[in-house]
Write a structure and sequence with these properties.
Layout: H1 3-16, E1 20-24, H2 42-52, H3 63-74, H4 76-87, H5 95-101, E2 108-112, H6 118-122, E3 129-134, E4 145-148, E5 154-155, E6 165-169, E7 172-173, E8 179-180, H7 184-194, H8 202-208, E9 212-216, H9 223-232, E10 240-243, H10 250-258, E11 261-264, H11 268-279, H12 282-287
Parallel strand pairs: 1-2, 1-9, 2-6, 3-6, 9-10, 10-11
Antiparallel strand pairs: 3-4, 4-5, 7-8
Helix pairs in contact: 1-11, 2-3, 2-4, 3-4
């Protein structure tokens, strides 16, 4: 058995007992067949925003700064409208979304750090499930999280204790209520409190304890990406994995070392196919 098989067996064994928290980034949308109808990276999103509202040249490539400029000079409603246009097209769940939705109920915690609704769509058939969305302080001052049932109805926070599957969307989502954390102000508010964990739901803090994280479709090139990952996985296990193909930046390499994240250097599509195939192979399951 080679190193890849051993690694897959280890990950599958943890998945089957609810020991892993999948953490999805925008790169998961690269798996959408025929091309993704919504932005699948911060770079693609900022290009779409600045195509609708002109911003100074020096910030045209900076997502949070461009979003802040639009919010300041065109109003928050304009920014939300641009985000709604960007993520309005329906995104069919990929085979990876469907695989994660098929995992045993333990309860299962999935973190999805992008604005699309594909993971929620894949989980729609799980009746005892719910979504926890980060919300902007500029729109919902004093509230960090909104809770939603599978049908999109608002839920009380205590209901999350009864769900067997929780989808945590720290940046918000297009559905069901068009909540987006995207501007500088949005993130300043969250980052001011995140060290003491205030913006992170108590149920997420509870469920992450002792669990491993598996990062899929994520990069850690900027401080914002690293900070969210670091704070969401705080007080979890001491062993994690990240599928990160290609050359790492110095900051990414340092972050992986600091957080004890084992890098899996292969394309996400290849890894996801191997993972799904291995999970369906009785011999692999027995070996795990």
């Amino acid at each position: 058995m080679d190193k890849t098989d051993t690694l897959l067996n280890e990950i599958i064994a943890h998945l089957e007992v609810g020991g892993i928290v999948p953490y999805l980034g925008p790169g998961v949308l690269d798996l959408v067949p025929g091309g993704c109808p919504v932005p699948n990276s911060p770079e693609a999103l900022v290009q779409q925003l600045v195509a609708k509202s002109s911003v100074p040249h020096k910030i045209r490539g900076n997502l949070t700064a461009a979003a802040q400029y639009i919010e300041n000079f065109k109003h928050r409603k304009t920014l939300v409208g641009h985000m709604t246009d960007a993520f309005g097209p329906e995104v069919p769940p990929t085979f990876l979304h469907e695989f994660l939705a098929s995992l045993p109920r333990k309860p299962l915690l999935i973190v999805d750090a992008w604005y699309d609704n594909a993971m929620a769509t894949a989980l729609a058939s799980r009746l005892l499930s719910g979504q926890l969305q980060g919300v902007s302080q500029s729109e919902h001052f004093g509230t960090w999280i909104h809770y939603f049932r599978p049908d999109g109805a608002r839920a009380d926070p205590f209901e999350a204790d009864t769900w067997d599957t929780l989808l945590y969307k720290p940046l918000g989502s297009i559905a069901p209520a068009k909540n987006f954390l995207v501007s500088d102000t949005d993130f300043v508010e969250v980052l001011t409190e995140i060290d003491i964990q205030t913006p992170i739901p108590a149920i997420v803090q509870q469920l992450r304890t002792g669990r491993h994280f598996l990062f899929l479709g994520c990069r850690f090139r900027n401080q914002l990406e690293r900070t969210f990952a670091r704070q969401v996985m705080k007080r979890s296990s001491d062993t994690h994995w990240a599928v990160l193909p290609g050359e790492l930046t110095r900051n990414e390499a340092r972050f992986l070392q600091e957080q004890n994240i084992q890098r899996i250097d292969m394309p996400l599509d290849q890894f996801a196919k191997l993972l799904v195939a291995a999970s369906q192979n009785p011999k692999v399951a027995a070996a795990a």
